[in-house]
Design goal:
By secondary structure, the protein is of the alpha+beta class. The chain has two domains: 4-163, 2-Layer Sandwich (Methyltransferase, Cobalt-precorrin-4 Transmethylase, Domain 2), CATH 3.30.950; 188-414. 26% of the residues lie in helices and 25% in strands. It has ten helices and 20 strands.
């Protein structure tokens, strides 16, 4: 089931009452009814109040308007009061008459009684011409409500449509180097340590709202948020296979951060993790690396490799979300595509890095043992742990098929996800950005 935040981007077929209710309850808990830049609730249509909200979101970062939801004088599920079914067509006609160039997606959601609807209006700020005007006025979002735009903001809105999406600029034109995750140096030099058996790299991230372009840097709040998230990640805490020491900041620049988790040795087994976080335009990208060595011939067993793969994905997703929250651009944030690489040590093959013993393989005379492994670009179905887990298992299936293995499907599908592989619960307060 999609998470509450997926109301912004979930397929229309998945937008139902339970998702809307979860979103409203989550928004109430996070004070979004009074503080959000991308969400507004209207109990009912009153003159141009809904059109004003849609126009303001269109002139800012987009978002969601819920019609049939109380923004005050109610709490919890009691906020969901709905509107008559006839309001769906009436609202669409009203918006088309007032802001035809900025029509939102309108999704009618039936309430449990079957008599009333909640109307979900999704506003894509990148799909409309700017500025969007209602009755001769230009509105934009500030936390919790809409406000009239001054001349400078109106000019910015006009200019924003003149810049190609791939060349978006805010107030500062920051040079972006190409994103090449396999070439980024994240490990310190190995001194007096045995050679590594292998390393895993996983990348993902978020495309952030347009307002991040006005502050295209990672400040102290973002750095601390990243460090807090890493130290609460499943690669750090409660893992029975490896116990990494705390993460430390190794480099802090305006647009990228490097982190390293202290190495732990358990007999002949050693493990270490590293991370690289980058903000480039609206893209917050993160690379997480995990490397290991064991005794002679002792590659990481397949199920433990699954733990490392999913643990790295959770670490990326959670850290990016937490950093976006610290920068006050957490909602909405569209996930970027995932990708991963398995890199054996010098002179080793993939089968030496991860043990595939016990799996059948086709005629070894025709089997190609690759020197590296690649988990191709893919998008998870959503941002929940279940969605990341599904992608991790799909990646393993692809990889094992590429290794000419067979008889593993039930084994991979049947693994229980251990308790330590979960989204961390990090509720520490974050400083307000001014």
């Amino acid at each position: 089931m999609p998470s509450p935040g997926d109301l912004y981007s979930a397929p229309t077929s998945e937008v139902d009452y339970e998702l809307v209710k979860a979103f409203v309850l989550s928004a109430e808990e996070a004070d979004l009814f009074s503080e959000s830049l991308t969400f507004e609730a209207k109990e009912k249509r009153d003159r141009n109040n809904v059109a004003d909200a849609v126009a303001a979101l269109s002139n800012t970062d987009g978002g969601v308007v819920l019609v049939g939801v109380k923004d005050k004088d109610a709490t919890g599920e009691a906020r969901l009061v709905g509107v008559p079914k006839s309001e769906h067509d009436a609202l669409a006609s009203s918006l088309h008459a007032v802001i035809p160039e900025a029509m939102p997606e309108i999704i009618p959601v039936a309430m449990p009684d079957g008599e009333r609807l909640i109307l979900v209006l999704r506003v894509d700020a990148d799909a409309v011409p700017h500025p969007v005007m209602v009755s001769g006025k230009v509105l934009f979002r500030i936390p919790g409500h809409s406000a009239p735009a001054d001349r400078h903001r109106v000019l910015d809105l006009v200019a924003r449509d003149q810049v190609a999406r791939d060349n978006e600029r805010g107030r500062m034109n920051v040079l972006h180097v190409p994103w090449q995750p396999t070439e980024i140096g994240i490990w310190p030099e190995d001194r007096d340590h045995p050679p590594r058996i292998g390393a895993l790299r996983v990348v993902g991230g978020l495309e952030l709202p347009r307002r991040v372009l006005d502050r295209p840097w990672l400040d102290s709040a973002a750095r601390q948020a990243a460090l807090d998230a890493l130290n609460n990640s499943p690669l750090r805490r409660s893992n029975p296979v490896w116990f990494l020491r705390g993460w430390n900041t190794m480099e802090a620049r305006a647009t990228h951060l490097r982190f390293l988790a202290g190495e732990v040795a358990d007999g002949t087994h050693r493990a270490q993790a590293a991370a690289y976080l980058r903000l480039a335009g609206r893209r917050l990208s993160m690379l997480v690396g995990f490397r290991w060595t064991e005794g002679p011939g002792g590659g990481l067993i397949l199920e433990h490799f699954y733990h490392a793969l999913l643990g790295a994905m959770i670490t990326v997703a959670f850290t990016c979300r937490h950093v976006a929250r610290a920068a006050n651009v957490a909602e909405p944030g569209d996930p970027l595509a995932w990708e991963g690489w398995l890199q054996p040590g010098e002179g080793l093959l993939v089968k030496d890095v991860v043990s595939v013993s016990g799996l059948g393989r086709y005629d070894p005379r025709t089997v190609y043992d690759p020197p590296t492994g690649h988990f191709p670009q893919a998008r998870a179905a959503g941002s929940d742990i279940e969605d990341l887990d599904e992608l991790a298992r799909d990646w393993l299936t692809y990889w094992l098929l590429d290794m000419a293995a067979y008889g593993f499907e039930e084994r991979v599908a049947g693994w229980d996800r251990p308790d330590f592989l979960r989204m961390p619960d990090l509720a520490s307060p974050l400083p307000t950005q001014r």
